[in-house]
Amino acid sequence: VNFDFSIMKQGNNESARLLIYGATGYTGTLICHEAISKGIDFEIAGRNEADLIKMASELGVAYHCFPVDDGKGWDSSLSGKSCLLNIAGPFAETADYAMKACLKNGVHYVDISAEVLVYALAESKDAEAETAGIMIMSGAGLFVTYDPLVIHTAKRIQDPVSLRVAFKYSGGFTPGSVASSTHITNAGLLVRKNGEIQELAEAIPVAFDFGDGPVQCQPTPLGGIIHAFKSTGISDIEEFFQMALPTDLKNSETIKLENGKIGQSVKAEQSIILAEVTGAQGDVVRSMAKTPAGYMPTVNSAVEIVSRILSGNYQAGFQTPGSAYGERLLDSLDVEIIDL
Ligand SMILES: NC(=O)c1ccc[n+]([C@@H]2O[C@H](COP(=O)([O-])OP(=O)(O)OC[C@H]3O[C@@H](n4cnc5c(N)ncnc54)[C@H](OP(=O)(O)O)[C@@H]3O)[C@@H](O)[C@H]2O)c1
Q: Are 31 and 302 in contact (CB under 8 A)?
């Protein structure tokens, strides 16, 4: 940890090559602490100066305060950087500004979005990113496990033709996640059929067995229709969540940090991603990824991805965790893979 108080100010620290925007939220705070523990040199940014000053002085990092639509703020904060980690969600409101700033400044873009339309936005910038020599990766949270798990499962079968993924989440939701959930449900019941994205007319629940008997899951576009399609080419994809996403902030009990640490309210159960791949002959394989509950898997995933980028390990263009790093990305995570 750098305790040089002279750099706890607004401005640039020449050795920092990572900027973390939206750093002072729940996940941002956890990510910043994790990045410090991994010895990553970074600066923080966001729109709330009081929170930024507090965090900058606690961590001994420089900060930049600007609203997400401030092009000059982006240019000055991205100067000298090689990677942006955007944690300011809902990403429907921040990703386009941040991606454009990264393209302009030749800086890799990473976020932890779970919003399927933001994945589509990232995909639409593929050619521009390739020309700029930067990687655009939206979804370096859940998908750092999800995407390589799907690659792993698909490799267990000949001619994989269809994929169903069910996600059982354990832990609470932050206000940012509740706001993002509204964007996910408003996107519609999106699936991929014969390679094309389509919208289902009706939400028909499907039962999946995560190990304790069948659980009814709701069709929910988690983003695999874009990510798993890119990383595996499987042309029929449907996704399910074990509950209806919380979209009403007034009636949702949200989680928050207590003194910068995860509170006791987060249950100690695991979260589980279940991937089910069907082959051309009708045979089916299933694999599960079990991760710790709550937001720590996302924190570790995002820090793993930016560490790789900072060490020069990236591919230009729109990438998913699986397309850039493959199945073996799982080896770097706190995740248990079970082949059923
Ligand atoms: N897929 C995953 O694995 C995963 C996991 C965890 C979180 N997430 C997503 O990450 C996002 C952040 O989650 P969180 O837990 O950190 O939520 P949070 O505690 O509510 O914090 C949200 C942060 O984003 C900032 N922000 C929001 N809208 C902004 C805007 N228009 N301009 C600038 N800053 C803005 C907030 O700034 P203010 O304080 O100024 O409002 C705050 O710093 C959410 O979208 C969530 O869904 C995804």
A: yes
